Amino acid sequence: MPPISPTGGGPITGGGPSDSGVMGCAVASVKSDLVPANILVVLDRSGSMNCNLPPLTDSAACEKNPIQSDATQPTKWAVVKKALKDAVAALPPTASIGLSYFNSDDECGAISLPSVGVKLLTSAQIDALGANLDGAKPPQGGTPIVGATILAFKHLHQQAQVSGNKFVLLITDGAETCDAEKVSQLATEIPKATSVNIRTFVIGAPGSEPARGMLSEMAYLGGTAQSPSCAHSGLNAATGDCHFDMTTSNDFGADLAVALKRISGSLTCSFDLPTSQTGPLDLTRVNVHYTKGSGTGLDIPQDTKSACQAGAQGWQYSSDNSRVLLCGTVCDEVRNDPTGRIDIVLGCTTVVK
Fold first, then answer.
1. Is residue 219 included in any domain, yes or no?
2. Using the 8-state DSSP alphabet, how is residue 275 labeled?
3. In this predicted model, what pLDDT tens digit does every residue of 21-39 receive, in sequence order?
4. Does residue 218 share a domain with residue 332?
5. What is the pLDDT of residues 191-223, one digit of tens each?
6. Backbone dihedral region of 81: left (phi > 0), alpha (psi from -120 to 50 degrees) or beta?
7. Distance CA 242, CA 200 (A)
8. Which domain holds residue 274?
């Protein structure tokens, strides 16, 4: 895509650049650039990440004795580390990403500054992230989810110079074990973060079964629920499916890679809606047109049958209706087309998949 604009779409001007499809009935259109994505990965480094995956070591056995029982088979830590490296390598260079761990001291520590700061994804940043992951080892100790998450919010919020969308990506294989009495604080802190454009993705690895309710609620409050009807009955419940629940996965590595790919699409295929001085946009008369670098035009349909990170193929509005999100394979195509162009087209009835 063309160079990123900090403000994305601008005022509505002119007509459509082509006469094909919905562009033929357009009353106005505006070119829209990718909105920058700033991602802070908050990664569980507690002792249980040393265990082999189920069924070799089930979650109950891992909690009792968090060790690698079979040195010939990968640990949860090794699988997560590889998947993260692969996901980072697949992100577009317009994204910024950093990395933080919990615990940080073999007990219940959580630190305010990331181990790798959130910076543009240059080759140097990719190398720094990889080297840091290689040097980090899961110690013994607890799982301070509450402290680590709140500190991540504060860090991103303090980065006032950073433009665009901000995300926390929490990956954990357990429940809060350090400040269980403070779990309820998340019900206040996560909406506060969402209100300042910091959204929260959550991945629950094998071992997080008792924390399904908490992790599901975190994703729901963080604006990244898998579907509008997902279960989020309470922070302390053992059921919930708003987050990426990997606890029953038969191939954790493969399923984690798929989840990270879907999340990365949600993070990096975001476009601002144009502004209007005559009143709010009619959201039922908005369409998205993609002009490929080759010159071929394509009207992208709206797809709201599932969440963007849960398999949608098309586009949909962000939760606050301020942005257009491209979902699925069209996201991959657009962000890998450096001379392509996205136009937000106004005046035609929205084409729905």
1. yes
2. B
3. 666 676 677 888 888 889 9
4. no
5. 999 998 899 999 999 999 989 999 999 999 999
6. alpha
7. 11
8. 21-34+270-346
